[in-house]
Design brief:
The structure holds three protein chains of three kinds.
Chain A lengths: L5 H24 L6 H4 L19 H24 L1 H28 L7
Helix pairs in contact in A: 3-4
Chain B lengths: L14 H20 L5 H22 L3 E4 L4 E4 H27 L5 H19 L3 H19 L6 H32 L4 H10 L3 H18 L7 H8 L2 H25 L5 H24 L4 H22 L2 H28 L15 H4 L1 H15 L5 H15 L3 H27 L14 H19 L2 H9 L3
Antiparallel strand pairs in B: 1-2
Helix pairs in contact in B: 1-2, 1-4, 2-3, 3-4, 3-10, 3-13, 3-18, 4-5, 4-10, 5-6, 5-10, 6-8, 6-9, 8-10, 8-11, 9-12, 10-12, 10-13, 11-12, 11-17, 12-13, 12-16, 12-17, 13-15, 13-16, 13-18, 13-19, 15-17, 15-18, 16-17, 16-18
Chain C lengths: L1 H20 L1 H32 L6 E11 L2 E9 L1 H24 L17 H21 L3 H19 L6 H32 L4 H10 L4 E4 L3 E4 H16 L8 H4 L5 H10 L4 H8 L1 H4 L3 H22 L5 H21 L3 H28 L17 H15 L5 H15 L5 H27 L7 H5 L6 H27 L15 H5 L4 H8 L3 H19 L3 H8 L1 H8 L4 H51 L4 H23 L1
Helix pairs in contact in C: 1-2, 1-4, 2-3, 2-4, 3-4, 3-10, 3-15, 3-20, 4-5, 5-6, 6-8, 8-11, 8-13, 10-15, 11-15, 13-14, 13-18, 14-15, 14-17, 14-18, 15-16, 15-17, 15-20, 16-18, 16-20, 17-20, 18-23
The chains are: A mainly alpha, B mainly alpha, C mainly alpha.
Chain lengths: 118, 481, 662
């Protein structure tokens, strides 16, 4: 029983080990010429010099949310596509329905102006 | 992979939910393209959709007891009764709140949309037969409700209430999910029937742990003490229309949730959860009554008195018998219709820039509107549980089931609770009939003819149920026969 | 079938609702037209049902109309039992009610004068009155048609309620309010017994349905129960006596009779309908309906017999000294109810019920006649201010005379057959107390004739004692008054002649009345046709006693009108006893009512004010207020407090379960 988990254990050990080795190697071997830009924390899309508790545009969230929905849709479509010949017509119809519902949601956000940045 | 897994489920069984989804989508599209300021097309589509959904439910599911979608979905008599009740309550909520929301500039298509999705979630809960579907329904219902509470965007109170509701609701959902995961861990199945079998076969500590967490989650959805703290804030912060919806429909759905998950699913653990439920019931009656006594705001008064009634519903669960569940269901159904009408009267008396929220506003109602004073009298008397009204039968059935279960002291306690309840309910009656209105005459009943008609019909149905409770009692009892 | 019965019952209810709720819109004429039409419909159908039983092939109907609820195996239902007994009662109730409805148009015509100008109740009093009497008709029909004890009890209370409302119809008169309160309270005493009786029945026979109960009784008549200290009682006896106590209240038997004379404060049509013809006979009907129960208890029947006999004689005697015309008729009603009860006690149920029917006609006639007199004299009721009215009001006089002859049992009139049957049945009965009862009812015949003709002579003969103004306006009453009188006079004369054979002696009632073998006092009489029965009557003392009563009345009030006053002087003590009605009223007022009030005051001062108000109510309220104030502070509004409480709750449950499971 437990023996079956040995590969996973190995995988974890190798993964952790490799990660550690790479970091340590970079630390030792890498050239070190720090400047201000390099030392500042990295943050996507924002000015790095302000307080992190600042106000920012709520539209980021909106876009993020919308993105997640369609991202998940794709994630759902891949496995479906793989077994398409097994699920048959019913599977196609079900996915069609799913997409229609999604489409209605899309219609809604479009009509409400959620997709317009300005 | 076998093709069995993709056997086409019996879709006609799930027709009510499918229909409701269609109605919700249709309302969305119609409202998007109608451009009507008052959202009239959306309103009518929604109302017709709700009524037809009720009819479809009866047609598609009455008299059956079968599962489909691989045992994930069940259609039985209990589902029919609860779904029809939820659908009708939503119908009432829409009918009552239209004028109210319009006058306050809150009437948007999203109100209908979110309510409809919430209703769909409730229906899913009621027909769920596996942990996943159950949770799916709970979340669909709850998320829509959070957004509904926040609908009055300009009001800090509403935002605050919505935030509290959301955070606490998320906490409760987390507990529910945690409990479910333990149940899954202990039994290795998501199917409620399979869980029942395993639970009956062996008793394990993990199961009991899972049980405690799920009971907590369910108790939160009910608003049972001590998981009740959100209720007064949400009731007061939310627009009255939404309060009405939360106070009635979601309670009925919660009855379905309890019976599906704990009453039937964990039936073998009855000995374990009986005392737990009893404790919640007694605490609810105690706290609800005590605090309701001193309220001066009628919405808050109704909110606190809700605990009292939730206590009674829980008492019905205590017995764990068919009679007990039937009694609880009868109680929830009749209670929600009664309270819906009470909120209807509140909204009737409210007008632009004025909420008829204080008990004072009901002074001398009889002189301004004898009909709705009579309706209010009827409702309050029924909520009190005076013999001859439907509230009496509900209380009586519950108390009888408790006595049958051999928990005499709880029955006595419940009776005392009901008597205390008389004080604050009959106070409203006194205000309506025996007190003189304030100097300027008090709020006049407003509202369109349709609203008044539905409200009067709602009040009348409470009266008729009191005179002829037999049929509904029989239906509720048959649901568990 | 069922629909027919439903229509009969519901038609008056609809009338009551329409006239009661929409009275001001309908107006007077509309209100009385609607109610009369609907009661008329009910009457026609009732008569149709009765003829179906008489000559057709209508069979007993026993069915449930609506199941209200089922609790603990006992069904609470609305259902109808229609058999011969019920059919007869239905016909009597609806017919008299119809007559009273019509008569009321005349009697209440100047109803506005009875109310103060400013009274809010004044505008619709007329319509309200019609609504009440229709409502009463509905309740009474529900009572007689019930097939279970629950419905019986509800209808029983409903007729009591309407009676209460109608006695106090003129609620601006203190005496009316006193009277209706009295009626209400005295009936509560009876109802208490009644309810206990029903409880006993349900407890020991396990059903509310008549049929089931009667079957259970027949199977186990000797079942016993222990009350107080181990003495074993036959259940049937206990149940029967308790039920009869209820009947005593409603049918005004000694000692629960005190409310009926006072009920004359109500309008006269009510006195005729409720307090003479129908409601007060509910007790008689009840015992007849319950005959399968009473028959198994000798003791209960003997109790019934003695109570009835006492009422029959004593109340008749009081009637001799009354000065108010309606009160004389009221005491006569009490006495006649006594007769009916005596018949029941002697197992001669058919005779009792038969007397109920004949009495309904002639007593309603007498009341309506008295009412007609009262209308003519502008609502004066004292007989000392009447006299010589015969020539002013011929129709009223002749119909009243017919009623009186029927009442005293003049051969050939309806009352003769029913009353003679009762007297003979008691004579032939060998029940304990039958000898005593026989003497009471015999003497009662003399007394009945005496007070009846005293009334007739004082009102219609002799010198005219009313004041000048009244005399000038004397005239016969309008048609709406006299027509019902005539319509009631017809059955008062004829109905006995036509129906005594089959109904009393022919076993027409069939299965609706049970008489066990050995109890059949009526069968012992031996009936061979109406003629033979009449001839036989001349061999018994009753008819001569009645003649003597007439003679004495004639001598005292026509021949020597000065004598009564002298007699009164001479016989002060007995007179005072009668005047005070044997002191029942004083006893109740001074002992029970005053005692109750005293006790109430005491409890109020000591218990209520100090203990309940001070400690329990206010104390609780204060405590609750404090607790609530604390709890209200618990509702802080802070999210983390809320979450904290939830977690605590979860922990409590978890911990508790760990302990509970270990």
């Amino acid at each position: 029983m437990l023996a079956e988990y040995v590969p996973i254990l190995l995988f974890i050990i190798v993964g952790l080990g490799l990660g550690a080795v790479l970091i340590v190697a970079g630390f030792i071997l890498g050239p070190r010429r720090p400047d201000e830009e390099k030392l500042s924390p990295y943050e996507c899309g924002f000015e790095a010099f302000e307080d992190s508790r600042m106000r920012f545009d709520v539209r980021y969230y909106l876009v993020a949310l919308l993105f997640i929905i369609f991202d998940l849709e794709i994630a759902f479509l891949f496995p479906w596509a793989i077994v398409l010949d097994e699920v048959g017509l019913f599977g196609v119809a079900a996915m069609g329905l799913f997409l229609v519902i999604l489409l209605i949601g899309f219609l809604y956000e479009w009509k409400k102006g959620a997709l317009e940045w300005e | 992979m076998t093709t069995d897994a993709f056997e086409i489920p019996n879709l006609t069984l799930a027709l009510p939910e499918i229909w409701m989804l269609g109605v919700a989508c249709l309302v969305l599209v119609v409202d998007l393209f109608s451009g009507d300021r008052d959202h009239t097309p959306a309103y009518w589509v929604a109302q017709l959709g709700l009524l037809s959904a009720a009819l479809i439910t009866v047609q598609a599911q009455w008299g059956l007891d079968v599962t489909t979608f691989d045992g994930n979905y069940v259609a039985d008599a209990m589902a029919v009764v609860l779904k029809v009740t939820v659908l009708l309550l939503t119908f009432l909520a829409f009918a009552y709140s239209r004028d109210y929301l319009r006058e306050r500039g809150m009437l948007r298509g999203e109100f209908y949309l979110l309510s409809l999705f919430s209703t769909l979630g409730m229906m899913v809960i009621i027909s769920a037969h596996s942990l996943l579907v159950l949770y799916l329904g709970v979340e669909l219902m709850s998320l829509s409700l959070y957004a509904l509470v926040a609908m009055r965007r300009g009001s800090p109170a509403a935002s605050e209430a919505a935030m509290k509701y959301f955070v606490l609701g998320a906490l409760a959902s987390g507990m529910l999910l945690y409990g479910m995961s333990m149940l899954y861990g202990a039994t290795g199945s998501l199917d409620l029937a399979a869980i029942t079998d395993v639970a009956a076969a062996e008793s394990r500590l993990l199961l009991v742990f899972g049980l405690v967490f799920t009971v907590v989650g369910v108790a939160f959805k009910f608003g049972a003490v001590p998981f009740h703290m959100w209720v007064p804030d949400v009731y007061q912060g939310a627009p009255t229309a939404v309060t009405l919806f939360i106070a009635t429909a979601s309670k009925v759905a919660a009855v379905g949730l309890f019976i599906r998950l704990i009453g039937e699913g964990l039936e073998p653990l009855h000995g374990d959860w009986q005392n737990m439920v009893l404790l919640l019931a007694v605490a609810s009656i105690l706290i609800g009554n005590t605090v309701a006594l001193v309220q001066t705001n009628i919405k808050r008064m109704l909110a606190y008195s809700t605990f009292n009634h939730i206590g009674f519903i829980f008492l019905g669960f205590v017995a764990g018998s068919a009679e007990g569940y039937g009694a609880s269901m009868f109680y929830a159904v009749t209670y929600s219709f009664t309270v819906a009408a009470a909120f209807g009267v509140i909204m009737l008396l409210s007008r632009q820039g004025f909420e008829a929220e204080n008990l004072e506003d009901f002074k001398g109602l009889n002189e301004r509107s004898p009909l709705f004073a009579l309706v209010m009298l009827l409702l309050m008397v029924s909520l009190t549980g005076i013999p001859g009204t439907v509230g009496f039968y509900a209380k009586w059935l519950v108390i009888r089931s408790v006595v049958d279960a051999g928990v005499m002291w709880a029955a006595v306690f419940a009776v005392i609770g009901a008597v205390v309840g008389a004080f604050y309910y009959l106070r409203v009656v006194r205000l309506c009939y025996f007190d003189q209105p304030e100097a300027e005459g008090g709020p006049q009943p407003s509202g369109s003819g349709g609203f008044r008609f539905v409200l009067a019909a709602n009040g009348l149905s409470v009266l008729l149920l009191g005179l002829f409770p037999g049929a509904l009692v029989a239906v509720c009892m048959a649901a568990f026969g | 079938m069922e629909t027919l019965y439903l229509v009969i019952v519901l038609a008056p209810l609809i009338g009551a609702i329409v006239a009661g709720l929409f009275g001001s819109q309908l107006g007077r004429v509309g209100a009385h037209r609607v109610t009369i039409a609907l009661v008329g419909l009910s009457t026609l159908l009732s008569v149709y049902v009765l003829t179906g039983f008489m000559w057709g092939d209508r069979t007993t109907f026993d069915g449930t109309v609506y199941t209200w609820m089922v609790a603990g195996g006992i069904e609470f239902e609305v259902g109808f039992l229609v058999d011969e007994l019920t059919a007869m009662m239905m016909a009597v109730v609806t017919f008299v009610s119809l007559m009273v409805h019509i008569y009321t148009i005349g009697y209440m015509a100047d109803e506005d004068h009875n109310w103060p100008e400013t009274s809010r109740l004044r505008p619709n009093a007329y319509q309200r009155f019609f609504a009440y009497i229709s409502l009463f008709t509905f309740s009474m029909l529900m009572l007689v048609m019930a097939n279970n004890f629950l419905q019986l009890f509800f209808a029983w209370e409903a007729v009591g309620l309407v009676s209460y409302l109608l006695i106090g119809f003129w609620m601006n008169r203190p005496s009316a309010v006193f009277a209706n309160l009295k009626a209400f309270l005295v009936n509560r005493v009876g109802d208490f017994g009644f309810l206990l009786g029903i409880a006993t029945v349900v407890m020991y026979f396990g059903s509310l349905h008549y049929g089931d109960v009667f079957n259970a009784v027949a199977v186990r008549p000797d079942q016993t129960m222990s009350i107080l200290g181990g003495a074993e009682w036959q259940v049937v006896t206990v149940a029967a006596i308790l039920l009869f106590i209820g009947a005593m209240g409603k049918s005004a038997q000694v000692p629960l009779h005190v409310w009926l004379p006072d009920s004359m404060e109500g309008p006269t049509p009510i006195s005729a309908l409720i307090h003479a013809a129908t409601m007060v006979t509910a007790g008689i009907f009840l015992v007849a309906r319950m005959s399968p129960l009473f028959e198994y208890s000798e003791a209960a029947l003997a109790f019934v017999l003695v109570i009835g006999a006492i009422t029959a004689l004593l109340m008749g005697l009081v009637g001799l000294v009354q000065q108010d015309i309606k009160r004389v008729v009221a005491y006569s009603t009490l006495s006649q109810l006594g007769y009916m009860v005596v018949a029941l006690g002697a197992s001669a149920y058919a005779a009792g019920v038969y007397h109920l029917m004949t009495h309904a006609f002639f007593k309603a006639l007498l009341f309506l006649g008295a009412g007609s007199v009262i209308i003519a004299l502008h609502h004066k009721q004292d007989m000392r201010e009447m006299g010589g009215l015969k020539k002013y009001m011929p129709v009223t006089y002749w119909t009243m005379l017919i009623g009186t002859l029927a009442l005293i049992g003049f051969p050939g009139f309806s009352g003769f057959f029913s009353k003679d049957a009762i007297i003979e049945a008691v004579h032939h009965s060998d029940r304990i107390g039958a000898g005593f009862a026989y003497w009471c009812v015999l003497l009662g015949v003399f007394v009945t004739a005496l007070y009846s003709f005293r009334l007739l002579f004082l009102v219609f003969h002799g010198e005219e004692r009313m004041d000048h103004h009244t005399r000038e306006h004397l005239h016969e009453s309008p048609k709406v008054v006299t027509v019902p009188l005539i319509l009631l006079a017809i059955p008062s004369v004829l109905i006995g002649l036509l129906t005594v054979g089959p109904m009393v002696f022919g076993g027409w009632f069939g299965d609706s009345i049970l008489v066990r073998s050995g109890h059949d006092a009526l069968g012992a009489i031996g009936f061979h046709g109406v003629g033979e029965f009449t001839l036989h009557a001349f061999k018994t003392p009753a008819i001569y006693l009645a003649a003597a009563g007439f003679a004495v009345a004639w001598y005292l009030y026509i021949r020597r009108p000065d004598l009564p006053a002298q007699l009164q002087q001479r016989l002060q003590t007995p007179y005072r006893i009668l005047e005070n009605k044997y002191g029942f009223d004083d006893l109740y007022l001074n002992v029970f009512a005053a005692g109750g009030r005293g006790l109430g005051t005491l409890l109020w001062r000591g218990g209520d004010v100090r203990l309940i108000d001070g400690l329990v109510v206010n104390g609780t309220a204060r405590t609750v207020g404090r607790v609530a104030a604390v709890l209200r502070h618990g509702q802080t509004g802070y999210l983390y407090h809320y979450a904290f409480v939830m977690i605590i709750g979860l922990l409590v449950l978890l911990t508790w379960f760990m302990f509970a499971l270990r």
